[in-house]
Amino acid sequence: MLRAELARHKSGEKGSKYGEMIQHIFDTGSILPGYVTVELLLQEMRTRYAHNQALSAPPTLFLIDGFPRTLDNVQEFEKQIAPCQHMLFIDCEEQVMIDRLLMRAQLHPGARSDDRIDIIANRLKGYRDETMPVLQYFEKVYEREGEGETQGSPINSKPAHTDGVRRVVHMIDGNGSTDVVYQNVRRAFLHCVKDMNIT
């Protein structure tokens, strides 16, 4: 979504409001303001929803990658769009993430301006400072379920559902191989679909 907005900006296409800001974010490894991210998300979701309605498709289910990254993202999303009912949190050691990003840079040189060790370090700092508080917030008001190699009963099974919406965080071990992580994510995602009664 962000790279599509950036591509529109670079091509001079009308309707790109935030291309220059997004380029700066990529170049520095910082985080986009919540209101911008949510505005772009809402625009994309409306487009997809209208497309599915025109095709008489099943109810539209949105899986949003890499979001929310800050508490501001959470507040803006739930104020402007809807409560988030399920969150997939892929937990991965920092060194594993660094190794993977540097490997991507070797395999696809020049493909991404942010696959450099200095920007990676800045992104990880932003993750620790701004994204981890999101998980801590969710742990207070969401149920938490383990979705790694072992299955267990929910942790924190008495969440504060103050608005009547059941929310669940699925913790997924992201340190394994691509196939193992994929299967863990798939299992968690199917659980979300079943829980929301969507077929």
Structure summary:
The protein has helices at residues 2-10, 19-28, 34-54, 71-80, 94-107, 117-141, 178-195; strands spanning 86-91, 143-146, 168-173.
Tell me about this structure.
- This protein is mainly α.
- The chain has a domain at 83-199.
- The chain has seven helices and three strands.
- It has helices spanning 2-10, 19-28, 34-54, 71-80, 94-107, 117-141, 178-195, and strands spanning 86-91, 143-146, 168-173.
- Strands 1-3-2 form a three-stranded parallel β-sheet, with helices on both faces.
- Mean pLDDT is 77; it is low at 147-160.
Radius of gyration: 18 Å
**SS-based class:** mainly alpha
Averaging pLDDT over every residue, what do you get?
A: 77
Can you list the strand order of the major beta sheet? 1-3-2
Keywords for this entry:
3-stranded parallel beta sheet, 3 strands, single chain, 199 residues, 54% helix, 8% strand, 7 helices, mainly alpha
List the helices and strands and how they pair.
Blueprint: H1 2-10, H2 19-28, H3 34-54, H4 71-80, E1 86-91, H5 94-107, H6 117-141, E2 143-146, E3 168-173, H7 178-195
Parallel strand pairs: 1-3, 2-3
